[in-house]
Amino acid sequence: MRLAQATVTIDAPIDLVWSVMLDLPAYREWNPFIYRARRSGGETARVGDDILLHVKFSSGRRFASPERITTIDAPANGKATLEYEFRGPLHVTGLIRGRRRQALENVGGSTVYRTEERFRGLIGFTVSVAAVQDGFERHAAALKQRVESLKHV
């Protein structure tokens, strides 16, 4: 099993961070890693919704990643979680499995954002964990910048 992860502390309340995370159509305005996201379903995200993430790596390579939301735990008791799993053809055949977890925790008025994805499967070793790690770090930094800029609006 291989792991990519990133963590950042955001100077903003957890509810604001959560609202930016769930506003998938706005990703194109601020997210350098997931530059476009489309979700099936109604206005509110739900477990079981399919999402298509358009990912751009630092190398310029682009990839459309079909995912399915598996966990939505809205902010409660200072914590929140959004989780989705890769659902492409390589998942269906068991060749590559991946599940991304994004967790928030209220710490002294700020919010700690943590994201990680574990890759497994028969050819999971072929995933460029370094490229995903870089993307997660760029995503986390951009999320921090976006949320903190909205806090002052």
UniProtKB/TrEMBL annotation:
InterPro entries: Polyketide_cyclase/dehydratase (IPR019587), START-like_dom_sf (IPR023393). Pfam families: Polyketide_cyc2 (PF10604). CDD domains: SRPBCC_4. This is SRPBCC domain-containing protein. It comes from Rhizocola hellebori. The lineage of its organism: Bacteria, Bacillati, Actinomycetota, Actinomycetes, Micromonosporales.
